[in-house]
Each structure stands twice: as C-alpha cells, then as structure tokens.
Amino acid sequence: MLKKTTTLGVTTALALVMGASASFADTIKIAFIDPLSGPFASTGTNGLHQFEFAAEKLVNEKGGVLGGEMFEIVAFDNKISPKESLIQLQVAIDQGIRFIAQGNSSGVANALTEAVEKHNKRNPDSRVLFLNYAAVDPALTNDKCNFWHFRFDANADIKMDALTDVMAKDDSIKKVYIIGQDYSFGKAVADAAVANLGAKRPDVEIVGNELHPIGKVKDFTPYARKIVASGADAVITGNWGSDMLGLGKSVIENGYTGPIYTYYAAGSGITAAFGEQGKGTIRLIAQGEINPPATQEAADMYTAYKAKYPDGNIDQSRIFNVIDMLKLAIEDAGTADDVVAVATALEGMEYDSMWGGKVFMRPNDHQAIQDMHIHAHTDEGVTFDYDNSGFGLVTEETVKMAAMDSPSTCDMKRP
Question: Which UniProt key words apply to this protein (predicted)?
Fold first, then answer.
C-alpha cells in the first residue's frame, strides 16, 4: 500500500476529567493507556513520547488527515493495573475518543480487549478500536481475538519461533534456563520456548523454568544463583522494565557469561545500566533496524527525536508504524468516525516501514507479520546509541516475515 499524506497534532494531557475541549474539535484523539507512575513509569513515558513524536512528524507537520484534522495523543496513567486501565478506558470513551493505544502488560491488554468488545456490542454509535503496540500474549490474536483489536508487534510465539531458529544453529547451547514474570505473557514465553526448543533441538536440556512476581522482586540474587548453578549455556526471558534490568544485572554479576536472550532489554535506562556488562551477553528479538539504519528516513527520524528528547530513545519503532498505518486507514476509509470502516482498511494492509521491510496486517486475526531481528547489545558499529550510553543494538541475524503462515485459532466475528 502506498503511503499517503496525513497530519497529526499531538497534545498530551493526563486525562482524568470528563468531557472534551472545544479547542480540539479538529483533532483525532488517540488515548494512550499505559503506566506513567510506579516501577514501570520510565517505559510508559518513553512510549508516550514516541507516540507524540510520531504523530507530530508523520501527520501533523504534513498537514493532517482528511483535509486538516490532526492527531492528538491523550495520556492516561493506568499504573500498570488492569482495573485502573478499565476506569481510564471509560474516561477516554466518555471524552469521545475512538482509538485506544496500549502495550505494557498483556494482563492489561486482555482486560482492555474484552472491555472494548463488550462496549462495542452495546454501543454501536460510540465504537472504539484497540491499537495494541506491544502486548504480545498469543491469546490476543488467537482464542481471544476480536474485530476491534489490532496487534502491531509480533506475538510471543512468533518471536520465540524466530529466536529459537537462531538458537538451534548454535551447537554450543546444550542447557537452557527459562525465567519470566508470573502473568499471562511470562507464561506464554515459557510455553513457547519449551515447545520450540523441543521441536528444533530435542538434545537441549531445559535446566530451569520458573516465574517470579511481576514488579515486586527487589533482589534477583537468589534467581541468579540458581541460573549459574544450573550450568545453563543460555537464558531466555520475557522480562521487561525494572524486572529485566534487575534480573539481567544480577545474573551477570553472579558470574554468568553466556547469552541472555530477551524481548525487552533495551532503552528506558536499561541499555545505559547494562553498559559494558551487557556486551557479548544481552541479545534481543525485535522488529526494526537502527544499527545500521534501514532507511535514510529512519536515520533522520532518530536524529530529530534525539534533538527533541536528548535523554530519550526510539526503542519501539513499531509505534511509528501504528501512527502511519492508522493515518492511511483513516484516509482510505474517508472518515475517522466510522471505526468499522477504519478497521476494514487496516485489515490486509501492506505497509512499507521506514525501519525496514513490510508490515502485513493479517486479516484473519489482526496480527502484524514482519521481519524479526536478533540484536546484540554492543558499543561497536553503533550509529544511534540508547540512553546516551555509547551502547546500542546491532543487528546480527534476520528472519524475514517471521511466521507468515503460522496457524491461528482466531474465529473472527465481524460486525
């Protein structure tokens, strides 16, 4: 699909009051519902800034969409709580917002997708779309799929399939330790790791498979000592935020020197905190390339972002895909008010991402299919670092259009 010109105006507010301001009558609002306080505040805030910047650069500075309507990002602090997220969802709906963006915590995403589906059934005149940019529980595009939910990140199964393709080629890996946060996503990562390694490398021994409370562990030393004592050649974790940093640093400081394969071990202060310690150890499975930049547009975008947010990082490039693909869908639909038309335009969209390759929004389950990369934490060959640390992510291997033909149990019911 060819890109079209659209404009987004971005205004950020911690929206805790009802009603919409008349001054924003010509904006298309996107509710950002993620943690802006508590242990995962840095992750949420960095994501918010990326949404704001993407809207500004890809839409608003280009004149808007539908003849001049701008995108406005309205921020809601959900404190990483499903219950609080549902409260903020209702506040957003009451303000007339029709697009909901969320990504941190699949537990939150599961609560939101169920609430959105129920709301849309009961309120056909105020339907909303859920734009999931990072919650990767496979169930969201399988048994719990619905027409109103679109996932722009690869799910945990897709990432693990690509990751274990690479691990399977490494004959030095004989023992693997799996550890993660105790909720739906952590369990999905563990299940996928066991299944994929069993199929691709039945000789590999799983020497540990455990979950820990999310956001509550202050000292990971006991976990780290078990990992080192197990003799593991590789560690797999889906941890994110402070849990990723705490686990990774403790494992390394307790003498582990093998690869730690992760989903979210970069940016938001994590890269700087790992620094030299993480070199040769931290690996990350993700979409998008920045070292080297996939395109000149990506390089220019990152340079401009750093000029505006000197302490920030574009560490979730898929956020820019969300904004640009939504813009194109609204233009194709000819309206932002009819979210059924917008959703229909998103289904099956093939989008050329500035971060490299295509993004295909698979119509049967609303799961984005795209290239996946194994990145290494390093200070060598880094054009754009994270956290002003001199360290960044350099692409080591790529799996093209990962899991394009993967099965799905989704039984999509359309309005």
Answer: Amino-acid transport, Signal, Transport
